Amino acid sequence: MIKLKDLNIIESLDALSRIPPGKILINTINAHSYNTAQKDALFAEALQNGDYLIPDGASIVKACRWLKAKSRPTERVAGWDLFEFEMGVPAGFPKVEGTVCEPGGESDGMKNRRRRVMFMGSSEKVLSLIRKRMSEVYPQWEVVTYSPPYKPEFSDEDNEAIISAINDADPDLLWIGMTAPKQEKWAYANWDRLNIRCHVGTIGAVFDFFAGTYKRAPLWWQDHSLEWLYRLLKEPRRMWRRYLIGNALFLWNILVNE
């Protein structure tokens, strides 16, 4: 169980620029993940103990204000916002030499290569589309991808293969996309075994948004905090439980647990 009023949550888009370099785990929280964490102890622990948490939902922003929480975000910061910020190479980080993990520094063997971004998760079909679009939108990045087995839980052999792939890639930025809560729990449980020095973001649906296999809501819906309604209208059979029941459950959990 987690308490929203006690969480450390990034409060604005501008605050992303103040995340220091190094091995940093960045997760998101929205109404759905808050509800899930009330009954999933490992997920709650992962959200509480990650390095940074961004408010990927207008409901989180509003609830934090209403609760007079320790963190009171002034705006929603979506997983897509984090993705665009990190991919854009923030000011203060090196542009060609060194890595995004080590501003101004150069590691052995890294002086003459582009920054390397790794996408771990999703299907090979989605990853192939990501590789293609990366070459068009972010050609300055070298891209590495890894599609893990599609199953509820990974075996020890699966985990070894994933960890080895990440460590061998030695990325300057790592995105994990396996949907919540699987991605957050995996990153948290295996954090100490990842021999990397970069930002790691668990961004789920962003893989599909960037690949183009799922269309994000138009800006008007986003600006009016109605992206959830857009998704519900687009996929009512898949999303009705998450949003109609989930939103009501979020309000109940806030009243009862906070």
Automatic annotation (TrEMBL):
Q: Does the keyword Transmembrane apply?
A: no
- InterPro entries linked to this entry: WecG_TagA_CpsF (IPR004629)
Name the UniProt key words of this record, in alphabetical order: Glycosyltransferase, Transferase
Query: Is Transferase one of the keywords UniProt gives this record?
Result: yes
One Pfam family linked to the record: Glyco_tran_WecG
**Domain of life (superkingdom):** Bacteria
Q: List, alphabetically, the CDD domains matched.
A: Glyco_transf_WecG_TagA
Which NCBIfam families has this protein been placed in? Answer: wecG_tagA_cpsF
Q: Tell me what this protein is called.
A: WecB/TagA/CpsF family glycosyltransferase
